[in-house]
Each structure stands twice: as structure tokens, then as C-alpha cells.
Q: What sequence folds into this?
């Protein structure tokens, strides 16, 4: 490398600028899409979500049509999201743990020391991305799965009860879950810890609390984040205990908001 | 904190004849203290950094340099005290990257991102045109590898990218923490020239190092820190004059006579057999005095202890992790 002949000031004076929220959003957008893990996570979400929905519909369509399954048809049409949600957790966690793990967080906060702005920008970019990815995944799964269901005469059209809501609800749930993981990431600062804790909460604890006696078990089942939030993403549910879609989502949104508020306080006070 | 030089010192004299420019303080630290649990990393530090010259922030590893620099740009919150840049806290700057450019750690980078993408998000965050990214890539000599992921970069390339990031906003204040770490000799000279050029352009430049010799070549002014406290704050020339003692060594068969002669002309003389150590009178004057009195000299020379030794002496009580026998290390 030879010594450069340029001056530090460059060829032209820089136009005026400021570290505004729209610019923070633009910066976070560039950050998100300039690492490979984002592309992989989104591709995995679409492949898992749409692929598994299509697969399960293909497998159960004949039995469902014959009335032998005993399960509601609408519970299968977004079934793949059960697995696709793992990628939302990973992407949400990486948004912040990727920065703490590499030291990048220092560059981020040097570029914009207003931590609230950084947090809002990260949240907007993450939720926007996950909402679109969630809707696309659910829609592709519905198209794929419905092909098999329609062939058996039990197809679900967009106009059917809860179908359109489920497609957009998938986006909402993915965005909320990603935000939940991001908040956990701000508190724990480790990708492995966040992914383990959030997935254990959603998959294990969410399904085990029902074993607690009586109304306690029932209510905890209703209120666990994964249970409360995911009902909006499916026209019908396997679990009759769950809250109504929008009621459940409101509970889930409140839980995300509380965790995010705690994370925001910790983030704004902690040394980077 | 540096007193007047106790002994006349040729190098210091030359340097003091051309005092570097220094306007009103731009970085002002006042009573800056940072505790981590019960460990005090920075202990009531006050200093100022002025524009138009390179200020060296010198201290052994663990002395509190990096913590102080992190507090300058608001990454660490001071336990007490304040630090301002141009009269305001860094966090209140409307466009921080245009106010202060900082190289904090070589690896404040995501290894999976390309050099260009790293600079592009930074530029976007402060409304800096994307064309400026290419300019600073050229400036640090990374244009050929701009599309490579920084995880593959050597330590030196990482440092160059960090310096490019610091210069991105064309800031009037540049803060570089250990910028020569990992650089080859050519890279070290490049950083040295860059720091001096930035100061010549009127910018405020603060460069930290644990290498005294490097600072002596780069900095006009020194702030020396050890165990979280300021040990010296003076021009490099004054620091050299005060701490890197030099003396005239002279051997003569008539040491008593020569010693009397030298003392009468104001020198401070110590005698060891036929050898005299003369402070305050230079070698030429010593020789002329001896010749004038018809005294025979067997040896006449200037002995200068190194800056590194001076720095070791000054910070001896303040090294965080001293080797078992530090005296042997300096030899």
C-alpha cells in the first residue's frame, strides 16, 4: 500500500447533515442487508414456513376430507410458521447480539450516541422486514397447501373466516417475536443465550404450563407470549384454550412492550 | 505540571524555539472519574486538548487511556466529572461523525460486512454522501479490498478501515486510540504523517499510545496518564527536557581541578574516580574550560538516557501489570 496523496478533507466540502431518525433507519437497513445471516434467516423462514405448510397439507388433505383427522382444517393452513418462527427469533437476536459480539455496538453508538433513536431505528427495520417476510411466507404456504386441500374439496379461500387475517397476522406475530428476541438481546447480549431462552419460553414453557393445576395452568397457557401471539396467525387452532386472535395479540404486544421498555432503560444506562 | 527544565538541553532548546500553535481548548476533561465496581479506572482526570497540534495521550496498558477516550465520545458514562468537545457533550452533537472522528478499537466491526458496507452505513447515519466513502477508502489505501469482508482483514487493514471511519465526516476533531497497533513500519509512518497533517490543517488531534518513542515523534504535546491519574501535561519538548536527563561525561587525570572549574561556571558535578558527570554545561563548554586551564581530557561525551527509560521511570509506580523484575526488561 502506497502513501496516498489525498487530503483528509477530500475533493468537496460535505453538505450539511444530522443524525436523524430517518438516517438511523437507513443505516440500520444497510447494516441488516450487508451481512449474510439476514438473507439466510429470511430464506429459511420462507422455506420452512411455506414448505412445511405445503407438505403437511399434502399429507393430511385426504384424511381431513374424509373427516378422519378430527382436527380443524384451518389449523393446518399456516402450520409451517410453528417452525419458521425460530428464524424470527434468530434474526431479532442477531440485530443486537451480533453487534455486542463483534464490538460493532461501539461504532453504532459513536455514529449516533442518542440510544433511543438507535433502538427505534433497529426496531423499525427489524419489524418491517419480519412483517413482510411473515406475510410472504404465510401467503406462499397458503397457496401451496391450499392446492392440495382444494383438490380434496376442502380448500380455504381468502374470503373465508380468518384466512386473510391469518396471512397478515403471520407478519404481525413474526415482527412481534423478533422484537421480543431483540429486547432479550439487549438484556443478555449473547446470541446463544437469547435464542435458547426465547425458544425455550415459546416451545417448552409455553406448552408445559398447562400441566400446572386448575385455572393457573389454563391462564398461564393463555398468557405465554408464544401462545397469546400466535393465535392471530392461524384461522383455527389445535388448542381450544387460547385467547381470541386479537385479544391474544394485544396481550402479546403488551408483553413485548414491557420487555422492550426494560431493555431500553438498561441499554440507555449501560456502558457500550 | 512540567516544571521549567532543570538542565539546559540542546534538543529541547531547539524544539522550544518553535512552539507549536495551540488555540482555545476543544476537548475539555474536568474531574473525569470512572469506576468499574471497586476498581478506579480513571481517577479525577482533568486535561485539555487544543487544535492545530497533535496531543499524545501516553500511558502504560491499563492506565485508563481507552476508558477516557470512550468517555469522550459517550460510550462510557463517567462516574463523576465531565468531558466536552467544543463546549458540548458528544451525545448532544447534531451530527457526531462530522464533529469527532474516532478510532476506538480496531475490531469495532462486524467480520461479515465488507469494508465499503461498513463505511456506507456510517455515512448514511450522519447524512454523509456515499461518494465520501470512496474518498476515505482511497485515502487509507483500502480501495482495492473495499469489497472484501473485514473478517479476512489483517490487524493493520482493520486499523486503516478504522481510520477511514474516523475521517468519514471530515471532522475538526480526531481521536485515535492506539492507531499504530498492528501496523508495519510503513503504516506507522503513514499514521504519524497523517496525524501531523490533520493538526497542520488546524484540526484537534488526540492520539493515544503506550509507546513513548512513537509519541515523541508524533506529538507536540503530551498528556501522560498512569493508574488513572495525570502524571504530566506539557509539551513534548518540556517532557524530554525534564525527564530524559542528559549529562556530559568527562574523564580526566585532574578530576578535582576540573570539577572546581565547572562548578564555578554554574555546573552541577558529580565525581566517580577520574570520571565526572556534568549537568548544566554542555560538552563544548566543558572542553573549552579544560583547554583554557590546560587540563588533560581522556574522554568527553554527551550521555542521554532514552525517552523510553524516562517514561518507565515516570510511570514505574503506576504500571498495572508489572513484570517481576522490570529493571531487566528495560535493558
A:
Amino acid at each position: 500500500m502506497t502513501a496516498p496523496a489525498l487530503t483528509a478533507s477530500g475533493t468537496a466540502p460535505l453538505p450539511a447533515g444530522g443524525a436523524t431518525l430517518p438516517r438511523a433507519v437507513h443505516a440500520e437497513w444497510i447494516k441488516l442487508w450487508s451481512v449474510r445471516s439476514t438473507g439466510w434467516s429470511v430464506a429459511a423462514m420462507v422455506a420452512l414456513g411455506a414448505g412445511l405448510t405445503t407438505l403437511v397439507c399434502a399429507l393430511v388433505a385426504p384424511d381431513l376430507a374424509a373427516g378422519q383427522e378430527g382436527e380443524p382444517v384451518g389449523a393446518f393452513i399456516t402450520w409451517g410458521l410453528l417452525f419458521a418462527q425460530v428464524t424470527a427469533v434468530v434474526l431479532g437476536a442477531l440485530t443486537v447480539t451480533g453487534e455486542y459480539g463483534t464490538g460493532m455496538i461501539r461504532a453504532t453508538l459513536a455514529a449516533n450516541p442518542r440510544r433511543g433513536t438507535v433502538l427505534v431505528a433497529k426496531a423499525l427495520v427489524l419489524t418491517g422486514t419480519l412483517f413482510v417476510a411473515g406475510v410472504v411466507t404465510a401467503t406462499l404456504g397458503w397457496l401451496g397447501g391450499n392446492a392440495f386441500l382444494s383438490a380434496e374439496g376442502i380448500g380455504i379461500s381468502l374470503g373465508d373466516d380468518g384466512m386473510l387475517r391469518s396471512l397478515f397476522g403471520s407478519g404481525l406475530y413474526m415482527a412481534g417475536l423478533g422484537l421480543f428476541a431483540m429486547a432479550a438481546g439487549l438484556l443478555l447480549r449473547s446470541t446463544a443465550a437469547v435464542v435458547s431462552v426465547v425458544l425455550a419460553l415459546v416451545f417448552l414453557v409455553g406448552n408445559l404450563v398447562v400441566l400446572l393445576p386448575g385455572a393457573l395452568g389454563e391462564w398461564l397457557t393463555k398468557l405465554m407470549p408464544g401462545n397469546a401471539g400466535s393465535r392471530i396467525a392461524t384461522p383455527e387452532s389445535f388448542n381450544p384454550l387460547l385467547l381470541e386472535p386479537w385479544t391474544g395479540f394485544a396481550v402479546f404486544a403488551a408483553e413485548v412492550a414491557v420487555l422492550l421498555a426494560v431493555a431500553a432503560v438498561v441499554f440507555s444506562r449501560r456502558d457500550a | 505540571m512540567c516544571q521549567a527544565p532543570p538542565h539546559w538541553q540542546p534538543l529541547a532548546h531547539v524544539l522550544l524555539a518553535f512552539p507549536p500553535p495551540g488555540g482555545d481548548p476543544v476537548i475539555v476533561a474536568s474531574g473525569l472519574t470512572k469506576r468499574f465496581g471497586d476498581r478506579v479506572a480513571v481517577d479525577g482526570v482533568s486535561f485539555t486538548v487544543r487544535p492545530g497540534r497533535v496531543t499524545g495521550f501516553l500511558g502504560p496498558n491499563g492506565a485508563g487511556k481507552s476508558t477516557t477516550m470512550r468517555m469522550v465520545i459517550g460510550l462510557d458514562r463517567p462516574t463523576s466529572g465531565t468531558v466536552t468537545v467544543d463546549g458540548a457533550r458528544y451525545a448532544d452533537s447534531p451530527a457526531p461523525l462530522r464533529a469527532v472522528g474516532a478510532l476506538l478499537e480496531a475490531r469495532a466491526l462486524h467480520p461479515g460486512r465488507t469494508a465499503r458496507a461498513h463505511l456506507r452505513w456510517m455515512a448514511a447515519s450522519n447524512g454523509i454522501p456515499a461518494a465520501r466513502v470512496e474518498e476515505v477508502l482511497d485515502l487509507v489505501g483500502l480501495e482495492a479490498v473495499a469489497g472484501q469482508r473485514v473478517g479476512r482483514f489483517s490487524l493493520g487493514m482493520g486499523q486503516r478501515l478504522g481510520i477511514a471511519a474516523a475521517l468519514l465526516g471530515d471532522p475538526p476533531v480526531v481521536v485515535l486510540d492506539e492507531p499504530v497497533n498492528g501496523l508495519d513500519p510503513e503504516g506507522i509512518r503513514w499514521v504519524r504523517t497523517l496525524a501531523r497533517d490533520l493538526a497542520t490543517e488546524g484540526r484537534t488531534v488526540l492520539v493515544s499510545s503506550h509507546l513513548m518513542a512513537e509519541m515523541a515523534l508524533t506529538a507536540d504535546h503530551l498528556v501522560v496518564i498512569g493508574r488513572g491519574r495525570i502524571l504530566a501535561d506539557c509539551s513534548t519538548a518540556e517532557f524530554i527536557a525534564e525527564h530524559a536527563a542528559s549529562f556530559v561525561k568527562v574523564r580526566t587525570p585532574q578530576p578535582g581541578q576540573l570539577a572546581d572549574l565547572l562548578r564555578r561556571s554554574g555546573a552541577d558535578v558529580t565525581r566517580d574516580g577520574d570520571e565526572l558527570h556534568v549537568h548544566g554545561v554542555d560538552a563544548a563548554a566543558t572542553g573549552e574550560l579544560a583547554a583554557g586551564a590546560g587540563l588533560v581530557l581522556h574522554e568527553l561525551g554527551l550521555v542521554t538516557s532514552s525517552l523510553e527509560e524516562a517514561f518507565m521511570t515516570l510511570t514505574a509506580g503506576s504500571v498495572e501489570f508489572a513484570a517481576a523484575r522490570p529493571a531487566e526488561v528495560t535493558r
In short: The mean pLDDT of chain A is 93.
